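thought: fold this chain, then report.
action: predict
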Amino acid sequence: MGYKVKMDYTGRNNITHPTLNQTDFIENFIKETRNQVVVNVGSGPLRPIPHAINVDFIDSYEVDSVSSAYQLDFDDASVDFVISIGLLEHVKYPQKAIAEFKRILKPNGKIYCEVPFLQPYHPAPEDYWRTTVDGLCTWLEDFEKLKPASQAGLQAQSDGYFAIICTMCFQQIKIKRHTRLSSLF
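observation:
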């Protein structure tokens, strides 16, 4: 899996996480969520948000909790913010993972989600999905889009390919008591 280079037209080229290229977003996010419980699901071996709890299904030096996106080791309604960057294209059942995000989020909790729309095949270990902004909104239909509603960014990768990434932030609006959905799949 190669790293991407952000081309930001100011003369700076930043090599960062394969999809995490929103430097301004990260800096503001760190300030705004410093005293909140933030969970970065599918974090991989990087820690872009210093105070986030990194979760991945593969253990590495920056992973705090090793678990599946389908069964997170958090209590119901215990998390203020879920980050899902470059994860949902790698899970076979993205709506099942989203249901788990919803379970752990507090009322009015937020989710930041970034998924590829146009991006080369990159199994890690599998690569199932590409989605449009409308598709992502459908997956997250139990959430309310926050402003700015959506962004799509063109990124140049170090291997010469380009990717268009759909980026959105949502807030949970429908609070329902529910059980784990693992038995349904």
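thought: worth noting. Residues 1-20, 154-162, 174-185 have pLDDT under 50 and may be disordered.
final: tokens above.
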